[in-house]
Write a structure and sequence with these properties.
Blueprint lengths: L1 H7 L3 E4 L9 H8 L3 E4 L16 E2 L3 H13 L2 H19 L1 H12 L10 H9 L3
Parallel strand pairs: 1-2, 2-3
Helix pairs in contact: 4-5
């Protein structure tokens, strides 16, 4: 609870890949709670997150420093525009309503649904499956 309360008060959240699963739940939690992600894997999302639209992106350590500096120096207006982009992305692609729409669409064309369950997925990967 404290983590989520703290995260909900953050304007930005540094979101590197997870240790077991590259697309970590942490970035989604941050976005749902209103934090703008600073990330190096926006391309893992479908559709991809876009630098200066709904995230601040980086690829190298130097670019991470630059992205953090951008966040610190950002005006309230710039931050509000970026926050609006995050909110729009969450509503369009990550919300339960958006998930339901995408799931219904997928079920119309396939009978196979794969769920990313970190504990089970990592165990299967380690077992070579």
């Amino acid at each position: 609870r404290d983590y989520l309360r703290f995260l909900g008060r953050c304007a930005f959240a540094i979101a590197p890949p997870g240790s077991q699963m590259p697309q970590s739940h942490n970035i989604v939690e941050a976005m749902f709670l209103g934090a703008i992600p600073i990330t190096n894997y926006g391309g893992y999302f479908h559709p991809p997150l876009q630098d200066s639209v709904n995230c601040l992106s980086f690829n190298t350590a130097d670019e991470l420093c630059h992205a953090v500096d951008r966040a610190i120096r950002m005006t309230a207006e710039e931050r509000a525009l970026l926050q609006a982009g995050v909110d729009e992305y969450v509503a369009a692609y990550l919300s339960t309503k958006a998930f339901g729409r995408r799931l219904r669409s997928e079920l119309a064309t396939t009978n196979l649904i794969v769920v990313n369950d970190e504990g089970q997925s990592v165990a299967l990967w380690r077992a070579g499956q």
